[in-house]
Every structure is written in C-alpha cells, then in structure tokens.
Amino acid sequence: MAKLSNETLTMTFELLRQLAEAIELASATEWIFFERYGETPRTIGELEELQNARERLNQSYSRLNTLLLRVLEAQPIAANAMLDLWAKAIDNGQANLEAANASIQEIKRGWNLS
After folding, report:
1. SS3 sequence, 46-60?
2. Of all helices (H) and strands (E), which one includes residue 3?
3. Alpha helices of 1-114 — where are they, by DSSP H?
4. Which pTM does this prediction carry?
5. Measuring CA to CA, how many Å separate 97 from each of 5, 45, 48, 67, 73?
6. For residue range 63-83, what is the model confidence (pLDDT) as tens digits?
7. In a 3-state reduction of DSSP, which class is residue 113?
8. Contact 53/104 with Cβ under 8 angstroms?
9. Residue 111: Cβ within 10 Å count
C-alpha cells in the first residue's frame, strides 16, 4: 500500500500550513501597501514583487497538495517518479516560502508596514 508515515504527513501538512499563512500574509501586505501608498511609479515594483510572491506560493501549495493526493491514491505503491516529483515539490515549496517571506519582510521594513 502507498501508506505514508505520520512523520511524512506531518511535515507535508506543516509545509502546506506555512504556505497558506504566507499566501495570506502576501495578500494582506499587498492590500495594505496598495491602500496606503497606491499604485505609483515608486510603488509598482513592490506591488509586483508581492503579487509574484503570492503566485509562487499558490503554485507551490497547489502542486504539493495535488501530488500528495496522487501519492495517497497510488495503489499498491506510489511510483518512484511520483515520489521524486513530490520530494521536488517539497523542496520548491520550502525555497519559495523562504524567498517570499524574505521579500515580504523586506518590503514591510522598507515601507514601515506593520
């Protein structure tokens, strides 16, 4: 059976939770930034950066969730290629999470957003 360990599931769900929180933070930061400063030549770069961060996080969340479902549905065992894709999705998700959080925090600091 394609039974995943509790540790593996917990790690995956934790990453999905972190991605969800980062999506929410990117969206809220983008909205606050836009409301406070508007869309001007001076702010357009940051607004685009926040939107791009959110989109990358969305893609990571969606890909990881979809691959998790495929692995769980795989019977009697998940193919190695599928498990490799899932491992890459985890690595990409973690990398996108770190990059997006760094971008969001940099923009918040640079523009004194709380």
Report:
1. HHHHHHHHHHHHHHH
2. none
3. 6-37, 44-73, 80-110
4. 0.92
5. 24, 20, 17, 18, 26
6. 999 999 988 888 778 788 888
7. coil
8. yes
9. 14
